[in-house]
Design goal:
By secondary structure, the chain is an alpha/beta fold. The protein has eight helices and eleven strands.
């Protein structure tokens, strides 16, 4: 059901962004639907619930569990609505863990859509200022949003992205493999593997067989976990300690 003032014909297509509409999900939070791709940004079974389960509980908290107050570097493939970044900022503030957050997005959302998203209301935040700040920040510049959270947004295609430095965790939140198959390949995962510190982890909502095969080819050790509402499984892919994968090894 669409509870938003936006619909597919009204939403502006800015900077090449496909037309989309806002849809209410099972937990009351909104997701975006792209009719041209028949794809949602977040699960219709609960946008906030899915992000908390996959990226915060199975991702960030796993990464931080052995040293909760050690600073961490997180890379997100698919900034999208900014929900994952917002939840990570709130978690950083709650746990008092310093987090540098780098997010990749080829097609930033028009602010007309962002202002209609109800994540601040769903999370019972005092207002939407912090959420809007994520979207209003300049691109390609690291900026501190709170005492424990800084953000740098990169406007680039993941295929062309070159990581600068190592990350402790990766949120892989691209559209489904059936929609963006070029992003779910061993080549992409190998690049991300090499951008992780030893013991670092990549988490994603998809547990399809082809995704598991590509992650293993890139060198990851896989952990199949219970999925968010509506999904049986998700994946956590861990880079083994003291491991350096060469291209020849990955292609073997």
């Amino acid at each position: 059901m669409n509870n938003s003032p936006w619909n597919a014909s009204q939403t502006p297509a800015a900077d090449g962004h496909p037309r989309c509409r806002i849809v209410s999900t099972a937990d009351g939070s909104y997701t975006l639907y792209l009719p041209a791709l028949n794809e949602h940004y977040h699960s219709v079974n609960g946008a906030v619930q899915e992000s908390l389960h996959v990226y915060i509980e199975a991702g960030l908290r796993y990464i931080c569990k052995d040293a909760p107050h050690t600073s961490r570097r997180i890379l997100e493939a698919g900034f999208g609505t900014g929900l994952n970044a917002l939840l990570t900022m709130l978690e950083a503030e709650h746990s008092r863990t310093d987090i540098y957050y780098e997010a990749i997005e080829k097609y930033p959302l028009p602010l007309e859509i962002v202002t209609s998203l109800n994540y601040a209301e769903t999370l019972r935040l005092p207002d939407s200022c912090r959420f809007m700040h994520l979207h209003n920040l300049a691109w390609e510049q690291e900026q501190r949003l709170s005492p424990h959270f800084s953000l740098c947004k990169r406007r680039v295609d993941l295929c062309a992205y070159e990581p600068d430095g190592l990350f402790d965790g990766i949120y892989f939140d691209a559209f489904a493999p059936s929609v963006q198959p070029e992003l779910w390949t061993a080549t992409i995962f190998r690049k991300l593997y090499n951008s992780l510190s030893d013991g670092g982890a990549l988490v994603t909502y998809s547990a399809k067989g082809a995704v598991k095969t590509a992650l293993r080819q890139a060198g990851f050790e896989l952990q199949r976990l219970p999925g968010a509402a509506g999904k049986r499984h998700m994946l956590r892919a861990v880079k083994p300690h003291s491991s350096l994968l060469s291209n020849s090894d990955a292609d073997a």
